[in-house]
Amino acid sequence: MSLFLYMLTAAVAFGAWRTKSLTSGGALAAFIVGGLSVAGFGFTGMAVMGSFFFSSVLLEKALKSEDKKEAKGATRDAVQVMANGGAASACAVLQFFFPHPVLFIGFTAAYAAAAADTWASALGRKSTEPPVSIKTGRLVEPGISGGVTRLGNLAAGGGSGFVTVAALLLEPEVFSVVILVLLFLTAFLSQFADAWLGAAYQSLFQCCVCGEKTEQTVHCSKPAILVKGIRWWSNDAVNFAAVSSGSVSAMLLYMIVTGLNIY
Ligand SMILES: [Zn+2]
Hints:
3-stranded antiparallel β-sheet, binds zinc ion
């Protein structure tokens, strides 16, 4: 059974590479993240990860902008895969050695948070109202980190709800209403952490050729100049921090709710 699941994970990673949803490094990272999910949580782990992965890929493909430079960002590399799947993989590795229900909560919360972020940025781009900075409350340019829209917030709730419900259907005995609300809330809050960390510290560069502001360190084949934030505090670093904080806070709240009975 698990050999079949590992082969299925490899097939999905290969397919994602062939359809340009992942770079070759991204596909390898996805196979590792998927393999760890199977090792830790079996079919359930793979399905929860799949609910994040397939919904995000399909949303991004469906809403892909005609604009070439935005469309380019839809192929995820290994760093982006690890930013979304790192916290969940840590839960899966721990589950393999020290199984405990709290780790499934952390695993689910991580993918719920990742889905909230991906859904919010895919749908938020389609918002007709201009984004507002979560830090200053002022209007910001679309596509710049730290900007939030009502449509994006709604999408974040949809993404976290989707993954949470998938996990609930797979492992109904783990869940109560309290835990469902907890998972939904932590994923949603991590989306605000993402926006706030993005607005406050994320690096922004300006192209020295065309003058465009960008999150890329290279633009028009020339190194871009840092105009804001901390150089290494990239969108991926912000993502990793937000997803991890969602996962950790869900586990802490779960332990409080269940009366701190860790062994
Ligand atoms: Zn440029």
